[in-house]
Amino acid sequence: MIRPLPLRPGDVVRVVAPSGPFDVEQFELGLAILRDRFGLVPRMRPDVTARNGYLAGDDARRAEEWAEAARDPEARAIWCARGGYGAMRILPRLEPARVLHPPKWVIGFSDVTAIHAALNGAGLATVHGPMVAFLARTPPAALDHLEALLFGRARRPAGGGAPGPGAGVAGTGVIRPGVASGPLLGGSLTLLSHLVGTRWLPRLAGAVLFLEDVGEEPYKLDRYLTHLRLSGALDGVRAVCLGQFAASDKDGISALDTVRGLVRALGVPAIEGLPSGHERDNHALLLGAVAHVVAPAPGEPGVPRLVFESGAVA
User: pTM of this prediction?
Assistant: First the structure.
């Protein structure tokens, strides 16, 4: 797995909209954070704000935008503007090799799970984290964590405590105790389920699987996770980490309870309550790189946690 070199102030980042259109005011505030807080130089096409119904322009525009960003020799990262829907439609034109040589960071979440899956499967570590149109609403602690992760300033955890910024994230509970390691893969449960049967779903055997979602009723989450299990995609998964399932409870039925029960049945170490997903407090995760899951049994010291391995860089 190739992990891009840490970013530095002054680096160029390409901003792209591979999915849906976005709020321009929030987008501009996000660009200011890239420039003023992170010291980066955002670069984008003038038509990044295009709208075509629920898409940020037609497929040709979004695919060309991605290709230009991937080919830009000065760009050190590709930062997605927003999720929504549409990334799956340009997967056949993604050409992962272009962001592998030289390797670029790719940052986003939600619908961008489709792009993460394709790139992780091709051997590139990526970042499941706040998109440009969400940066202005992201709390300072989550921005500190994101900055530490991207700029190589992670603070390693001490003992069994919560990981420092950039080094990992702590959960709030244990579903099934145990310890496991493997490449961290996943993202939106909905998107992962919809990639079953395509060549873009990475092999999950041996992986630590992260799941989150938004606005999906409990029975739908059950359907997606059951689909993954019945397809065989979850065979050999080493551990599971659950993030936020925002706005998904329905008629007194808890989305987290629903997913928790299905995950417990997998019989692998599992933790819940990672501050990652569709809520404002969205802590970035390093997908593709090796991660360690620690799910303490009752009476064991330490907090449930997901720790990123420092690992080699490209």
Answer: 0.97
